[in-house]
TrEMBL record:
Keyword Metal-binding appears in the UniProt entry: no
Keywords (A to Z) from UniProt: Heme biosynthesis, Iron, Lyase, Membrane, Mitochondrion, Mitochondrion inner membrane, Porphyrin biosynthesis, Transit peptide
Its membrane topology: Peripheral membrane protein
Compartments where located: Mitochondrion inner membrane
Gene source species: Sordaria brevicollis
Protein name stated in the entry: Ferrochelatase
């Protein structure tokens, strides 16, 4: 999943304009105002035509043969790995070079990523609950859109149209990110891709005030780092893992929350990911009444540039060196198993620790019924709220220079659905 994307230095290519006269300076100022503008978030209601629930995620190759295409798409994404003018040249070279190594990793976890299986299961089960607790927006139809693996965003969108959404028929769809903590490189990239295919397949003109154009009305669940159901699901999994340690040692087990790292160049641009990761950790520890000592660390860092730290594997090694061998790893940024949990944490971090009996990992959320119910509760809250997206989603990073990001945010913040059920 994300590890292959973020295990390379991020190139920051910037152009600084030198105004030679008043008019270029004015244009520059106007452009900066557009970059920093915060669109108004419009209320959303709907006609009773059913609701498409679309899970957004990065995805992963289901077979070894899909690894090459997965990496090619991943390294072509400038939102995730900005290589500037060299993107089209370096992306294919990097993906081709890394394919054999990544294929071996997927082979070691069974020949492919289970993320599609879990994403489809989670979405289907959530929709079943939604049909019961939110009949006014039923039926709820499950869809999955991956950024770099099948089913791709384009495939999902064409299926929506084939299933009777859009094409003059209107209908409501909810883009539900499966990254609880927002980052421009994950949820942001997925929303940019969704906006791109909306423009290509439904036209560049936005929905009219009376809905006469019949396009799909989108709303977005763009972040949910402290949702009570998410916190409860994590907390229960941690309690179950702590119960495996002898009672006399249990309270001294160190909880190591592990999240995917980001290059500091992305963080310094203003990406909210570190704060939202910290918010999840704090909420989980409050639910646990701070029963154990804990730290937040980051995995998947590669390359010479500074990244968010400390690194997960280094943290485990240093604690063991200090004599602290009772450690529980919690993959706090992921909602299912994939290469980062099954290979990186289980086989690299724990497998190479020398203490697999005392260094353990909590179960991933996967098909956890507490988590599935949390997804349904969160979706119902969103459907009832009438919001097109969170107010936070309409704000761009202070250092953002992407016009595509500006257009995408403006589109999703401006979505409206006609009143009436």
């Amino acid at each position: 999943m994300a590890s292959m994307a973020l295990r390379l230095p991020t190139a920051q290519l910037c152009k600084t304009a030198r105004p030679s006269s008043f008019r270029p300076s004015l244009r520059c100022a106007q452009q900066q105002m557009r970059w920093l503008a915060t669109p108004t978030v419009h209320p959303v209601t709907q006609k009773n035509t059913g609701t498409a629930m679309v899970f957004l995620n990065m995805g992963g190759p289901s077979t070894l043969d899909e690894v090459g295409d997965f990496l090619s798409r991943l390294f072509a994404d400038a939102d995730l790995i900005p290589l500037g003018r060299l993107q089209n040249y370096l992306g294919p070279l990097i993906s081709k070079r890394r394919t054999p190594k990544i294929q071996k990793q997927y082979d070691a976890i069974g020949g492919g990523s289970p993320i599609r299986k879990w994403s489809e299961y989670q979405c289907e089960e959530m929709c079943k609950i939604l049909d019961q607790i939110s009949p006014e927006t039923a039926p709820h139809k499950p869809y999955v859109a991956f950024r770099y693996a099948n089913p791709l965003t384009e495939e999902m969108y064409r299926k929506l149209l084939a299933d009777g959404f859009g094409n003059g028929k209107g209908g409501r769809a909810v883009a539900f990110t499966q990254y609880p903590q927002y980052s421009c490189s994950t949820t942001g990239s997925s929303l940019n891709e969704l906006w791109k295919w909306r423009q290509r397949l439904e036209g560049k003109a936005g929905p009219t005030e009376d809905g006469s154009d019949g396009t799909i009305r989108w709303s977005v669940i763009d972040r949910w780092p402290t949702h009570p159901g998410l916190v409860e699901a994590f907390a229960r999994n941690i309690e179950e893992k702590l119960a495996e340690y002898p009672e006399q040692r249990r309270k001294d087990v160190v909880l190591l929350f592990s999240a995917h790292s980001l290059p500091m160049s992305v963080v310094n641009r203003g990406d909210p990911y570190p704060q939202e990761i910290g918010a999840t950790v704090q909420a989980v520890m409050q639910r646990l009444n701070f029963s154990n000592p804990y730290r937040l660390c980051y995995q998947s860092q590669v390359g010479p540039q500074p990244w968010l730290g400390p690194q997960t594997q280094t943290s485990v090694e240093e604690y063991i060196h200090k004599g602290q061998k009772d450690l529980v790893l919690i993959p706090i940024a992921f909602t299912s198993d994939h290469i980062e949990t099954l290979y990186e944490l289980d086989q690299e971090v724990i497998g190479e620790s020398g203490h697999p009996d005392t260094v353990k990992r909590v179960e991933s959320l996967n098909g956890n019924p507490v988590f599935i119910k949390a997804l349904a509760d969160l979706a119902k809250e969103h459907l009832d709220s009438g919001l097109a997206c969170s107010h936070q989603n309409s704000l761009r990073c202070p250092g953002c220079k992407s016009e595509r990001c500006a257009a995408s945010k403006k589109f999703f913040a401006g979505q409206e659905i006609l009143p009436g059920h």
